[in-house]
Amino acid sequence: MSAGAVPASLVSRAFLALDALAGDPTDLYFGFHLRLRGPCPDRERLYALVGDRSRGLPPLTHRLVGDGEGARWEPDPAFDPAHHVHVLTDRDPTPRPARALPGLPLDGRRPRWGLWLHRGGGTAGDTGAGTDGYTGGDRDAGTGTGGDRDAGGEWALSLLAHHAVLDGLSLLSVLGALFAERSGTRSGTWGDTRGGTGPGPGAYGRVGRDVCAGLLSLLPDLLPGAAAAPVPAAPPPAAASRPSRELSHAAVDLGLLTATARATGATVNQVHLAALAGALRDGRPGPGAPGTALVPVSTRARGADGGGRELRHVNRLWPVRVPLPLALPDPAARLAAIMAGTSRGTLDRRRAALRVLTERAPERLAVRLLRRLTDPRGVLLTASHVRVPELGRVLGSRVTAVTAVPWLPAGTDCFTLLAADGRVARLSALVSAPERDPGRLVRRWAREVEILHDTAGNGARRRGGA
Length: 466
Fold this sequence. Notes:
Residues 119-147, 284-308 are annotated as: Disordered. Keywords: Plasmid. The structure is a single chain. The protein has helices at 10-17, 43-53, 58-61, 138-141, 168-179, 201-206, 208-222, 237-241, 254-264, 268-283, 309-312, 331-341, 344-360, 363-373, 438-455; strands spanning 6-7, 29-37, 62-65, 72-75, 85-87, 113-121, 154-162, 246-253, 292-298, 317-323, 381-387, 393-394, 397-405, 414-421, 424-431. With 466 residues, the chain is of the alpha+beta class. It has a domain at 6-179: 2-Layer Sandwich (Chloramphenicol Acetyltransferase), CATH 3.30.559.10. The chain has a six-stranded mixed β-sheet. A six-stranded mixed β-sheet has the order 8-15-14-11-9-10. A three-stranded antiparallel β-sheet has the order 1-4-3.
């Protein structure tokens, strides 16, 4: 291994292996789109900022090279912000799928990430509600009390990375370190890339019962001939021929989700999943369609999601299968079913088992599990959720909206990613199948959130999970 190289984690290696199955090489890239109001920076200022702050962020300055157990992080000897920062020539500041963004580094010759500046247009007096129609107040509409500091109109930034490099939590951490006016502490070291700074073998022995229970719950995804479909040897033929990727998003007041959660004993994510199940009932492609979602689970130690070494390091997400109660016509019954299937105990056991697998399992077993889990023949869509920290201002401009740009596992038709940022919850849906309408899905989801909110006070309180 060359000087300065660091072995890639098993999770990063497993996600890197998905490249071989991708219908399009851009499908493994995801990120976040910031809409801003204020003076748009020039190219030189953006280069200078990224060049300065990226020096303390190894995922941005290191290349992920090799494959299998030989995959490793190596410093890019020719690292230059100009290789990764792109200024779009059009004036459209709306979010776009990765395929529509030029200059993505699709091989290991450079670090696998990119930043795009959307110059935008208009003036500071614009008061439109944004592309998703949210009219909940200052954060999206740009009508708040920004004063002279907000002069200059609307512009945007998109930061995307390969999913083997970062997950949603760590990408948001990188985003804050790059652009927040008061960026957090940055580390120039990787720490433990194997899987984290969590319990050692002795600690796992103390929770062995939960780990075993979690492993048993994963058996349908591990055993041949079980619920999960066989591992595909190559991308489904249709995936490589699909001409485009379509991205849509819709926003609701986060208070609708939190109020429903308080009234029912659910979590915000459980309410979101119940609303998504209701939206899928309306647009379900047929009676034989599967009713299962992939829900990414963090393998970080509990409490690490708020910061620390584990947050700053690469990808620590692993998907689990969650049944969606599409057959239930009653919204309250769907929420109750989601709560039962995603309780704190259930997810904690699965998280503990996945943590053991990602830290100690043989390479081939972990990759096989990930490929089984992401096989489209057993999954209707992926439903991910992330909390967005307060960014305040970026380069002197006010952040008015944060929209997720999802990725798309090989052969899948739809990936949804909910970004909740203080007052607003915004759902993004990326699709590849022509018959799937992401705009209809996110609009139906927004309506289902309102329905759940309106009916939450009519039923008995239920005990929820994590």
